[in-house]
Amino acid sequence: MTKLKLGPLEDDKPVKLTIELPAAVFRDLKSYAAILTRSGGATTPTEPAKLIAPMIERFMATDRAFAKARRNAAQFAPGAAERSG
């Protein structure tokens, strides 16, 4: 079994967003979707577009510099002292 970074996709209320991707990235998304479908035992194929949000979410969750910058920004945001204590 292939160990992918993404697991089963959550069914959440989406926000509509239109993006353009290079053809090579879309081909990779299609391949990833096919592998995810096979490895997860899904009966219906995963739509490549459904992978974009979880991939971005996973990327941001594992980006340490982003997490640190976000914490620092929250520290200095108006009202931060009231929320933290």
TrEMBL record:
InterPro entries: DUF2274
Pfam families per UniProt: DUF2274
Protein's UniProt name: DUF2274 domain-containing protein
Taxonomic lineage of the native organism: Bacteria, Pseudomonadati, Pseudomonadota, Alphaproteobacteria, Hyphomicrobiales
